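From the shared-data thread, chain only:
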Amino acid sequence: MECIHSILDQLEQGSNLDDIRCANADLLLVYLKRSKATHNVLARDHLTNAVGTLTLNVNSFQQPTKAGLPLCLADLEKAIAELDDESANGYQLHRKRADAVTYDMLMRAVQAIRDKAICQPLDDEQAA
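Structure, as tokens:
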């Protein structure tokens, strides 16, 4: 969770918001890719919430704004904890609401955030 705390520190120090948004988006990409191989519905729900709050922040009419960034990081932290806990069953019950959000939809949303925040291109490993 060190990466989350690092981004929170940057947020508190008033670092460049686009850099913070890009760091959030990049971290989301890492864990979205990791979650694809699992059926952990709780992790996917938290990742979906994190993508949603980051999208709201990037597209807010009132700019610059930090609104939603701490919530995004809180959901991302919950998703990471869920994915890191190998003993968790991830609440694998079939739920239409969870199944309505696909991996591809989340990946497109994060890429749209990265495009809007003018993030640096991903290296080959990150892009895979």
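Residues 2-127 form one domain.
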